[in-house]
């Protein structure tokens, strides 16, 4: 059952669809011990942030320092450029601080 | 094959026959011969296992937990202070649902230092969720450890097989050691459903809120209840294999007894002699020996007391401020089922003090005279 | 240099670490270096919570949550079990904080190293018991505020030196690492992975909440710790010391001033810290020299 859930989560993730949390309804739904059944991708920590990093691709030199230093592993590389997954970005600001060419700007989040 | 061996060596041979794969133990008197013999068996290749010379009992249990979680059959042995040191991890092993089997040699707590038999150490762990078996002689020790693995791996709860310091551990008795092949037919290799496997990565024991922790604990209690049946089934299957059948309790001349003595461990064997003596003198006495203490066999004990008018529970342990632990548990189990039986609690033999058959017979006579049901009765106290 | 860091993410996003958490970045890169064939024991520490609640896990590899003192002892049991079952090629990693390594977990670690257990032990060092609310540990540096060493009674004793303790155990490999230099961390872990026996790596993982700096300065704090020689980067391999020397050594004050946990220190106190840091640095350089002499002689 966990295999199917993992496969479904991976497919959902790749397609950009919502990943659902696991819902238990009763005692018999639980495994005998507290063993995990999935990863944390259902938890969209993007809601934590108050500032949002925005990459200016005209300045970006593809050094990947932002990707390297993201504690949330929410910057991915596509076509040689970094992209920030706003679903998970907590707005810590490390990428903004560390970008050697100051290509990332902090933009205030709307409420 | 019959050999004259000590209780400690019975433990070692049982672990060998059970094909324990990871043994992590720390020496403590009177357990040392258990681990020494196991080290020899591992070194000679007779037992294919890894022996970890851990630096404390706490680490011994932690290593057993790690090994069991990885899918290996884990074994350890300890006593009093060492068992107490492991306490936190006994709870951990239960919560992690790991079928670890441990031999505990009942030894008293210090201070002052005392290395002799006392049941308080293992009974103090009765809330940890470990199954507990109290053995009467070296044969039972060997047989019970093997059965414990089978029961444990079925209900996914750890098990403690308890023997007495020196009365068992260092006393030689004839023991029939079954051959490896017949035990292999009784005990299949350990094959857990959930384990640490890089092909199926899982986290075990992650933070669980009150929302589901309660249900996980319910599952543990359900498994404990299931264990009552499994203990009987395993004991019967073992009987078919070796001719020695075991169950939750043992009754000795109890069916028509007016006075029943309840005891556990080495003490119970002496009670058998006392029962014979009393019967010769016209007192219809019997013994109900508690073998499985956790899960507590309330139904079986209550049923065994059916014709008894008086019950004397002899505890070689004490829970200060309350009384003997077997006494408390028997009282609550019996109260729910037969209110008219008079139950007396006796404390005897703490710190390894010898309890003779004569003294046990006097226990029964004292119920005629001045024994209390509401207060602790101390046997052989030098007042 | 970026080619050295594997692209595939093993740790998943969505974990519950604080913004700018150093400990998370440490795990992200450590597990990249060690790969998916790794079993991790995590004692009580920030990562017990970061990994996520039941039934989820962010780590991406098998994790066994264990009691506080038992990272090394549980890892020993896991290794022995894998061995007796004939399963090879799996790394056993004990991933603990500084509390679970240097204080309550010290006995188990010392025992495992003395026995020569084939495990990698990584201590991610945020210099206090952060998970329970920033209480002091033996890894808290001299001068720092913590909730149990408040301003007036700030910790005066120096940081416990775990690498030296384990070097005295004749450990095959012990090293320090820093999240500001993930390539270096990955190189050290790849080297450690090839060695059999106990290996220890202490990764400096600054904590914005406990060290009291804004979350975007995590890497800057880590870099300054290296550049001021407060947290030197070095390896001890079979007794041979190898130090990575900063090209430009900065003043300790530069490191202290960005963290409010040092804000109460007076100028003389900061000067004293500079003295002790410089003295430790010199002693470390001497050790490198002496250990090198032993090898070539």
Structure overview:
The complex is a heterotrimer of chains A (111), B (383) and C (297). Chain A has 111 residues and is an alpha+beta fold. Chain A folds into two domains: 43 residues, no CATH class; 68 residues, Alpha-Beta Plaits (2-Layer Sandwich), CATH 3.30.70. Chain A is built from three helices and four strands. In chain A, strands 1-4 form a two-stranded antiparallel ribbon. The model of chain A has no long low-confidence stretch (mean pLDDT 89). Chain B has a seven-stranded mixed beta sheet, sandwiched between helices. Chain B folds into two domains: 241 residues, 3-Layer(aba) Sandwich (Rossmann fold), CATH 3.40.50.970; 129 residues, Rossmann fold. In chain B, helix 1 runs parallel beside helix 7 and helix 3 runs parallel beside helix 5. Chain B has 383 residues and is an alpha/beta fold. Chain C is α/β, with parallel strands linked by helices and 297 residues long. Chain C has a single domain, classed as Thiamin diphosphate (ThDP)-binding fold, Pyr/PP domains (Rossmann fold, 3-Layer(aba) Sandwich). Chain C is 39% helix and 14% strand. Chain C has eleven helices and eight strands. In chain C, helix 2 links the parallel strand 1 and strand 2. The model of chain C has no long low-confidence stretch (mean pLDDT 96). Classes of the chains: A alpha+beta (111), B alpha/beta (383), C alpha/beta (297). At the A-B interface, loops of A face strand 9 and helix 9 of B.
């Amino acid at each position: 059952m966990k295999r199917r859930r993992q496969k479904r989560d991976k497919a959902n993730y790749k397609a950009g669809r919502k990943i659902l949390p696991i819902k238990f309804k009763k005692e018999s739904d639980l495994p005998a011990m507290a063993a995990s059944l999935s990863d944390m991708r259902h938890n969209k920590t993007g809601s934590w942030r108050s500032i949002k990093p925005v990459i200016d691709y005209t300045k970006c030199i593809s050094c990947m320092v932002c990707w390297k230093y993201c504690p949330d592993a929410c910057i991915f590389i596509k076509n040689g450029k970094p992209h920030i997954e706003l679903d998970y970005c907590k707005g810590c600001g490390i990428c903004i601080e560390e970008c050697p060419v100051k290509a990332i700007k902090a933009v205030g989040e709307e409420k | 094959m019959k050999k004259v061996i000590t209780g400690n060596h019975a433990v070692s041979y049982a672990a060998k026959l059970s094909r324990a794969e990871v043994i992590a133990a720390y020496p403590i008197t009177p357990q040392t011969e258990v681990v020494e013999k196991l080290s020899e068996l591992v070194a000679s290749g007779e037992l294919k296992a890894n022996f970890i010379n851990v630096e404390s009992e706490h680490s011994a249990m932690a290593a057993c937990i790690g090994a069991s979680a990885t899918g290996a059959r884990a074994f350890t042995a300890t006593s009093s202070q060492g068992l107490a040191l492991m306490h936190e991890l006994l709870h951990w092993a239960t919560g992690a649902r790991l079928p670890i089997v441990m031999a505990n040699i009942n030894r008293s707590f210090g201070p002052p230092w005392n290395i002799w038999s006392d049941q308080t150490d293992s009974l103090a762990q009765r809330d940890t969720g470990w199954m507990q078996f109290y053995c009467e002689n070296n044969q039972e020790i060997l047989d019970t450890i093997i059965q414990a693995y089978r029961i444990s791996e079925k209900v996914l709860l750890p098990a403690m097989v308890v023997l007495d310091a020196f009365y068992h551990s260092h006393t030689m008795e004839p023991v029939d050691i079954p051959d490896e092949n017949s035990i292999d037919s009784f005990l299949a290799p350990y094959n857990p459903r959930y384990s640490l496997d890089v092909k199926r990565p899982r986290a075990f024991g992650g933070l669980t809120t009150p929302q589901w922790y309660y249900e996980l604990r319910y599952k543990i209690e359900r498994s404990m209840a299931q264990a009552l049946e499994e203990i009987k089934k395993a004991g019967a299957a073992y009987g078919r294999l070796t001719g020695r059948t075991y169950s939750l309790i043992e009754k000795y001349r109890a069916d028509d007894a007016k006075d029943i003595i309840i005891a556990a461990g080495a003490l119970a064997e002496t009670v058998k002699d006392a029962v014979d003596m009393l019967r010769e003198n016209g007192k219809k006495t019997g013994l109900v020996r508690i073998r499985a203490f956790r899960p507590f066999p309330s139904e079986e004990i209550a049923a065994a007391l059916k014709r008894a008018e008086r019950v004397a529970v002899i505890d070689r342990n004490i829970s200060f401020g309350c009384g003997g632990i077997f006494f408390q548990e028997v009282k609550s189990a019996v109260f729910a089922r037969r209110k008219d039986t008079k139950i007396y609690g006796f404390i005897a033999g703490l710190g390894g003090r010898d309890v003779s058959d004569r003294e046990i017979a006097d226990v029964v006579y004292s119920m005629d005279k001045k024994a209390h049901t509401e207060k602790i009765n101390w046997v052989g106290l030098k007042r | 240099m970026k080619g050295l860091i594997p692209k595939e993410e093993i740790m998943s996003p969505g974990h519950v670490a604080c913004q700018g958490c150093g400990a998370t970045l440490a795990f992200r890169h450590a597990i990249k270096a060690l790969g998916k064939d790794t079993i991790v024991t995590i004692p009580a520490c920030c990562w017990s919570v970061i990994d996520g609640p039941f039934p989820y896990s962010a780590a991406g590899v098998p994790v066994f949550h264990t009691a506080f003192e038992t990272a090394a002892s549980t890892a020993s049991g896991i290794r022995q079990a894998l061995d007796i079952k004939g399963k090879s090629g799996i790394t056993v990693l004990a991933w603990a904080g500084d509390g679970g390594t240097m204080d309550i977990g010290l006995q188990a670690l010392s025992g495992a190293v003395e026995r020569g257990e084939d495990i990698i032990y990584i201590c991610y060092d945020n210099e206090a018991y952060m998970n329970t609310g920033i209480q002091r540990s033996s890894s808290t540096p001299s001068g720092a505020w913590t909730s149990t060493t408040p301003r007036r009674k700030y910790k005066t004793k120096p940081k416990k030196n775990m690498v030296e303790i384990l070097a005295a155990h004749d450990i095959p490999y012990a090293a320090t690492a820093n999240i500001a230099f993930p390539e270096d961390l990955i190189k050290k872990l790849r080297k450690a992975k090839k060695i059999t026996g106990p290996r220890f790596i202490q990764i400096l993982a600054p904590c914005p909440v406990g060290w009291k700096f804004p979350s975007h300065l995590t890497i800057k704090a880590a870099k300054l710790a290296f550049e001021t020689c407060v947290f030197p980067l070095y390896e001890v391999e079979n007794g041979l010391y190898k130090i990575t020397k900063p090209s430009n050594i900065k003043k300790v004050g530069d490191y202290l001033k960005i963290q409010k946990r040092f804000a109460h220190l007076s100028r003389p106190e900061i000067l004293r810290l500079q003295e002790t840091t410089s003295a430790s640095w010199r002693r470390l350089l001497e050790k490198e020299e002496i250990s090198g002499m032993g090898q070539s002689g």
